[in-house]
Description:
By secondary structure, the protein is α/β, with parallel strands linked by helices. The protein contains 12 helices and 11 strands. It has a single domain, classed as Rossmann fold. Helix 3 crosses helix 5, helix 3 packs across helix 6 and helix 9 crosses helix 10. The longest helix has 16 residues. The radius of gyration is 19 Å and the shape is globular.
Amino acid sequence: MSDTGEQWQxxxxxxxAARRAKSLQPASACQDQLDVGxxxxxxxxxxxxxxxxxxxxxxxxxxxxxxxTQSKPPWDGKDAEVPAEQLGRNxxxxxxxxxxxxxxxLGSFSSCVSARYQLAMLLLLLETRQIPLKDxxxxxxxxxxxxxxxxxELGLTVLTENEARKRLTTRPTLFYLMHCGKALYNNxxxxxxxxxxxxxxxxxxxxxxxxxxxxxxxxxxxxxxxxTQAVAVCEERPLPCPSRLLDVFNDTAxxxxxxxxxxxxxxxxxxxxxxxQYQHCPDLEIILRxxxx
Length: 293
């Protein structure tokens, strides 16, 4: 796979150009001077609110189901040497590889209510899957320094480098990608496009089939070829969303990649997958920045 030296900035999917542009503005001085303690308290209150919601119980069950169906690595693993610190226990008492978590495109949670609810849900998901907070990496170029302080104080690992097209998964990883741009999903699939790596991914984000339904088919196949192919072989479990939180959790699913499904694709599918270019995407939802000399 080629590496052109370019960088992709994460942008959350917006319903209009104005909202999309607003999400990429520099952080304000007010955000930089956040009251960390009060912001954390507000986030924890939102966590408590979601914990009492009926729809959260179904989210919890679906996430546990997704984890249990792929608790083993995609290889046989009987003779594989796995470091002891990477082994956890599944619900049946057997050993399994522990999950890591990566969150891109969360948005400015100090000023955006939807982003705060999505951060609160992330914390609940980490608790449910027993993923240590330090094993959850978060990144969004719109984070202010104050918001980065809040995330660090919560115990999460705040990435300093934009790796939206660099994350190659080497162990089971939960990707929390709420309302991210189509290109980000496509990039993630491209970077992990193999029968050995894709089964390690669990994605909580926009339904791939929903993305397909909203696009002209020829454009979808041309510009987002990896999502196009993934639709046919991934397993999606739709997650419920109450009407009052439609702007926060609509069109969300748990997406996994069973090895048995991937084997149905022709072998040529996996041979030297070309890097996405997006030459025909004037409204690209991530920003390409030239490599500085």
